[in-house]
Amino acid sequence: SSGINAEWPLRPGNKKRSRLIKQDSVEKLRNKGKTHGYMYVRQKSALGYKWILMYCTIEDDWLKGVVNDSDKIIDLEHLPTTTVKTVGPEVDRNSCFYMISPKGTRCYQALTELDRRNWMKSLTESVVNALQRVTTDHVNRIRNVKGNSTCADCDNVDPEWACIDHGTCICIQCSGVHRSLGVTISKVRSLLLDFWSEELIQSMEAKGNSIFNKIYEANLQSDQRITSQSPREDREKFIKRKYIDKEFCRVKEDGLETAVK
Q1: What is the largest CA-CA distance in the chain?
Q2: Which of 139, 185, 211, 227 makes a 20 to 30 Å CA pair with 64?
Q3: Do the beta carbons of residue 50 and residue 65 sit within 8 Å?
Q4: What is the Cα 227 distance to its own chain's centre?
Q5: What's the Cα-to-Cα distance from 258 to each of 40, 143, 219, 249, rounded to whole Å?
């Protein structure tokens, strides 16, 4: 247990807070969550920002919340893609912290300074644990696809990056070249750092380096391929010839990429 207070410190006559504690939806969250309690969540509004009181809990790799008298449970933050960070002087409230994700930055205010420290500690630990679980699962599944144990371009072992539009795994050196080509050529994603949906994982499992290279390296001579020791300049030349010029492709009547879609 994190030591976070699950009960709101009531003041006489505060009917709104009394109602919040009695909500059925809140009770459900309280029974399920190991880390739970009230926080204010800063949200954008037409007039700037407003602070909304929510009952929050960490559950199933998410920070979830219930708003006021609503019975709707909201998914606030997906922890594997989130970073917990302290706030600076730009926030004029006490006991606040940020949660930063690909969707943006959201500010939270705990009830006390002790609660803030406990929330940040519990959330940071949950982020690390969630990343470890996600990484072990999806990385193994993607790397087990035929050909994916080595880079699709240079045969570097245990590639940690992927081209999600091609369905291939690549090493960090080749990923830098792919990024420089732009997303119209290659959409690069980290196997270890980025979030992978089940749909995207299954898409990668249906493709793979071996299937892709049977088309894009069909006419490649062994002495034309780069190696794990090749310098950046050689990687750039080879990858541009392979992906932009499609110099080594086996041309098919129904299109080059049919077999890898």
Answers
A1: 82
A2: 139
A3: no
A4: 31
A5: 51, 22, 17, 12
